[in-house]
Request: fold
Amino acid sequence: MAVKLQTFKDIRNYLSGELSELYPLREAESIADAVILKVFGINRLSYILKGNDLIAGRRKTEKIVRYCNELKTGKPLQYVTGETLFHDHIIKVCRGILIPRPETEELVDFVVKENKGFTGSIIDIGTGSGAIAIALAANFPSARITGVDISGIAIKMAIRNAMNNNVAVTFLKADIFKIIPSVLPMFDLIISNPPYVRDSERKYMKNNVLGFEPHGALFVPDSDPLKYYNAILKLADQILNPRGSVYFEINEAMGKQVSEILELHKFSEIKIIKDLDGKNRIAKGKKR
Reply:
């Protein structure tokens, strides 16, 4: 049966109703709003003012229905639309690339706040879509920014995202467990949002994450949950300038352990910062 959608209000009701079995009502309505803004290329104010206006276009309706069918499989909205908003930048994403999270925006905010007017060099390890590196490049236009990731798909997307957002970032495909430090220049800041969800925590995650996002960018074994932090800090011993800083996004349950390995690697001024939900989310240390 053909779907009859005549106004934005009709579309919102249709989408939120179809998605009500997968998401709470407010989340379903938020997803519906995002789809409408994307498909019609309008801003939120126009959407509010024209909610009851008649709209035309069979192609737009077909696109709405196609998006809805994809969303009903549990596929994340960002993969359906092919993009997300991160720190006021449109970041393209696809299957195989982790969707940037609001908590990671908080990491960027903290780095920017602590380093106003920064003009040195930064490496973003595990750059994925390039979101962190791009946001930092926009905030520190005179800095030299490098993004590193093991995924070739991610590196290609990150390069595209940097070009689309008109920022200068160098991206390298590399495995931090195997990289030869001498191939890298020295850096003043190391930023990373590495995999930190323990395998035992999978059971708490929603299907739209487990079924679609890359597990390699999310999970670590319970037997070695800090493997990426240890590898990055070993690399920092050789590529981070004296008095340089590292900034990590962390598992809320692992703040104490991350502090301990920062101390083990001779870092000082160690801080564990809570996110807006009051959870330990950011770790910072300065090289002695």
The chain is about 40% helix and 20% strand. The radius of gyration is 21 Å. The mean pLDDT is 94. The chain has two domains: 8-73, 83-287.
